[in-house]
Amino acid sequence: MARKSKLNLSLANEIIDRLNNGFTLVNELKKNKVGYATWKMFCQENKIIYVVTKGKSPEVYTLEKAKEVKKRANQGEFVSNICKELGMNYNNFCRFCRVNDIKILTKKALTENIKRRNYGSRKRSVIVSRKDLENIVFNISKGSSLKTELAKAGFSYSTWRDRCLEFEIKPKFTGNSKVLKYSLSRIRDIKRKVKNGQKIDDVCKEFDVTLKGLADFCRSRGIQPPTKWKRNNDDSAKVKKVKKMLDQDHSPAIVAKKLSISSSYVYLIKRNLDKPEGVGLNTL
Question: In 3-state terms, the chain is what percent helix, strand and coil (to 5)?
Answer without folding.
Answer: 60, 0, 40
